[in-house]
């Protein structure tokens, strides 16, 4: 039977007496490691250095561990307050081997390991709770109220997805969590469900949970998902809008779930004295985006404002670079790391293709040709800037294609309408900047076209992940020109990792460290500039 590596160390004890000198040295070192109180992550500039630094001492919290489980892979949370994986038994220990309870515990650990392997779930951390076999276990193990299960059934959710199987029990056990799972694999419900279960009922107890999303569109979508699962309960679920931030006093606001972008929440705290000191759950969705330098200061501020010592924080994304984990580890406590599949890979449900378009003009010709041959809506087209989005829209608008465009120059209402029209099928083709590249769940997108080469491997994974969601298959086509060739290898690596074929010459290109690749490109439009307005 396959056994987890941590079995090797079961029962090993550290003899404090024998190693007294080393122990004393270690203890001193821990005491010397003081926490920098100015900023949770340090200054934005120092992020990378901080990421490499050892984690500071954590606040000690009184949280009970649950059904113990072996640690898979390396233990990323060395500093966590780990309880022994196998509890010491004072009574039944005898010469005939482990006690009955211990044996049952071993069996449960083995069953969990086999089940995780089957669902491609990898965990690290001490005492990781058993994964969910089915949704019914939410009731039998955790006393989930019937209305939540009813709402899930109405949404057509029959079985938990792998990330839901593991992340939901982790959060229900009061543990902090890093979760990384492919695009479209149900990460949203993996935090919505346990939060609603833990909050139990609506209450006038200040702001009880906060969800941060990198874009307004995603914040709106997440608010809707919360409301869908909360149907039948009187939870107050609020989106932080411009109008809300204008409200004079937010210091006495009560709400069960608050969803926001970092900037809006930062303004609400600073200008309107929003009080986050009672927040019990904080979720950083698309966490690697939130940890980028532009947003880090606001995130830092919000995380500090959520000062409740027993807060449970979690990070969710389809891409989780090491530096984000390192950074988050400095603030998280006794966290569990849950990875589904391999970290930083694209969804295997998306058939990926690279197309050499020669020039900017060549891209437009290739696009028109493919639409003339077969246009299978809905199609999402990504470009690298709002100027180029406008230009391409200007071109396609003449082609009798029901196209629309979304970028940051549009008003909030225009952006919302563009998303709604695309969702309802009124629009067949949506031309977009990366503003909708992450998290957006447009059901049934048949094809994503990267008209402009993405500026990073993570951007590529998220863009193409708008297709191939919830078990459906999809397609992604990426155009490239001469200037993109040096970066092809990075995309090719993502493609091969998810089982797509890539020509050998691309795989033998030299590896290149990827800085943001956003070259100046020739105008898409053949028309004079003022006609594009
Ligand atoms: N258990 C389930 N069974 C069937 N469908 C599900 C289940 N859970 C979620 N879904 C559906 O799967 C789709 C994708 O879910 P979601 O948007 O949460 O993906 P995600 O993992 O957050 O993706 P991304 O990384 O792009 O943000 C949604 O339409 C959602 O309703």
From TrEMBL:
<keyword id="KW-0378">Hydrolase</keyword>
<keyword id="KW-0347">Helicase</keyword>
<dbReference type="GO" id="GO:0005524">
    <property type="term" value="F:ATP binding"/>
</dbReference>
<protein>
    <recommendedName>
        <fullName>RNA helicase</fullName>
        <ecNumber>3.6.4.13</ecNumber>
    </recommendedName>
</protein>
<dbReference type="GO" id="GO:0003724">
    <property type="term" value="F:RNA helicase activity"/>
</dbReference>
<dbReference type="InterPro" id="IPR050079">
    <property type="entry name" value="DEAD_box_RNA_helicase"/>
</dbReference>
<dbReference type="GO" id="GO:0016787">
    <property type="term" value="F:hydrolase activity"/>
</dbReference>
<dbReference type="InterPro" id="IPR011545">
    <property type="entry name" value="DEAD/DEAH_box_helicase_dom"/>
</dbReference>
<dbReference type="InterPro" id="IPR014001">
    <property type="entry name" value="Helicase_ATP-bd"/>
</dbReference>
<dbReference type="InterPro" id="IPR044764">
    <property type="entry name" value="DDX52/Rok1_DEADc"/>
</dbReference>
<feature type="region of interest" description="Disordered">
    <location>
        <begin position="44"/>
        <end position="102"/>
    </location>
</feature>
<keyword id="KW-0694">RNA-binding</keyword>
<dbReference type="Pfam" id="PF00270">
    <property type="entry name" value="DEAD"/>
</dbReference>
<dbReference type="GO" id="GO:0005829">
    <property type="term" value="C:cytosol"/>
</dbReference>
<keyword id="KW-0067">ATP-binding</keyword>
<dbReference type="Pfam" id="PF00271">
    <property type="entry name" value="Helicase_C"/>
</dbReference>
<comment type="similarity">
    <text>Belongs to the DEAD box helicase family. DDX52/ROK1 subfamily.</text>
</comment>
<feature type="domain" description="Helicase ATP-binding">
    <location>
        <begin position="168"/>
        <end position="338"/>
    </location>
</feature>
<dbReference type="InterPro" id="IPR027417">
    <property type="entry name" value="P-loop_NTPase"/>
</dbReference>
<dbReference type="InterPro" id="IPR001650">
    <property type="entry name" value="Helicase_C-like"/>
</dbReference>
<dbReference type="GO" id="GO:0003723">
    <property type="term" value="F:RNA binding"/>
</dbReference>
<feature type="short sequence motif" description="Q motif">
    <location>
        <begin position="137"/>
        <end position="165"/>
    </location>
</feature>
<dbReference type="GO" id="GO:0030490">
    <property type="term" value="P:maturation of SSU-rRNA"/>
</dbReference>
<feature type="domain" description="Helicase C-terminal">
    <location>
        <begin position="366"/>
        <end position="510"/>
    </location>
</feature>
<feature type="domain" description="DEAD-box RNA helicase Q">
    <location>
        <begin position="137"/>
        <end position="165"/>
    </location>
</feature>
<feature type="compositionally biased region" description="Basic and acidic residues">
    <location>
        <begin position="87"/>
        <end position="102"/>
    </location>
</feature>
<dbReference type="InterPro" id="IPR014014">
    <property type="entry name" value="RNA_helicase_DEAD_Q_motif"/>
</dbReference>
<keyword id="KW-0547">Nucleotide-binding</keyword>
